[in-house]
TrEMBL record:
NCBIfam families: pgsA (TIGR00560). This is CDP-diacylglycerol--glycerol-3-phosphate 3-phosphatidyltransferase. The keyword Aminoacyl-tRNA synthetase does not apply. It is found in: Membrane. InterPro entries: CDP-alcohol_PTase-I, CDP-OH_P_trans, CDP-OH_PTrfase_TM_dom, CDP_ALCOHOL_P_TRANSF_CS, Phosphatidylglycerol_P_synth. It is a multi-pass membrane protein. It comes from Variovorax soli. Pathway: Phospholipid metabolism; phosphatidylglycerol biosynthesis; phosphatidylglycerol from CDP-diacylglycerol: step 1/2. The chain crosses the membrane at residues 6-28, 35-54, 74-99, 132-151, 157-176. Belongs to the CDP-alcohol phosphatidyltransferase class-I family. It is an enzyme of class 2 (transferase). Keywords: Lipid biosynthesis, Lipid metabolism, Membrane, Phospholipid biosynthesis, Phospholipid metabolism, Transferase, Transmembrane, Transmembrane helix. Its EC number is 2.7.8.5. One of its GO terms (molecular function) is CDP-diacylglycerol-glycerol-3-phosphate 3-phosphatidyltransferase activity.
């Protein structure tokens, strides 16, 4: 199941990272770099939904795919956040909250799986909402201009990325609360 269509689509999110970063080094106008990076992010972020759909539809789900999918998502989001911090479009504090949470919850999930309590920290709706808000905020911040001549994506992106940071903390607290009883039970 290493080279199925869904897994290849997941790999594209990882391959997209140098493309999105590299766009900002092209000798073209800032608005063109912003547009290309935004389109790339949206296209590759859409593979997150599509690869899961195809894996289920084509009966090509696998343990490797289940492992790689969230890793690819986290790489894409974290790399994009670092680009946005570099461009002064996202606050370092927001990036630290989001990236720190991703590291902490990934480690927590790994540990909980090792002790046989992985289901207690399974993905919850708050984590999904957090991801959706991030996936809207990031392209808004990458575009950083007027959309349809009326929507200030930079301003909307700022609001959404901060909302995402709040949801990030909220989801982390949720997962920690779910894990604490299991941790206490095994600490005795």
């Amino acid at each position: 199941m290493f080279w199925t269509l869904p897994t290849i689509m997941t790999w594209t999110r990882i391959v997209a990272i140098p493309l999105i970063v590299g766009v900002f080094y092209l000798p073209v106008s800032e608005s063109m770099r912003n547009l290309v990076a935004t389109v790339l992010f949206i296209v590759f972020a859409a593979t997150d939904w599509l690869d899961g759909f195809l894996a289920r539809r084509l009966n090509q789900t696998s343990a490797f795919g289940a492992f790689l999918d969230p890793v690819a998502d986290k790489f894409l989001v974290c790399a994009s956040l670092l680009v946005l911090v570099h461009l002064n479009r996202a606050d370092v504090f927001v990036a630290l909250i989001i990236i720190g949470r991703e590291i902490a919850i990934s480690a927590l999930r790994e540990w909980m799986a090792q002790i046989g309590a992985g289901k207690s920290v399974a993905v919850h709706m708050i984590g999904k909402v957090k991801t959706v808000v991030q996936m809207v905020a990031i392209p808004f911040l990458l575009f950083n201009g007027l959309l349809f001549g009326a929507i200030d994506t930079g301003a909307w992106g700022q609001w959404l990325i901060w909302i995402s940071a709040v949801l990030t903390v909220w989801s982390m607290i949720y997962y920690l609360q779910k894990a604490i009883p299991e941790i206490r039970a095994r600490a005795k």
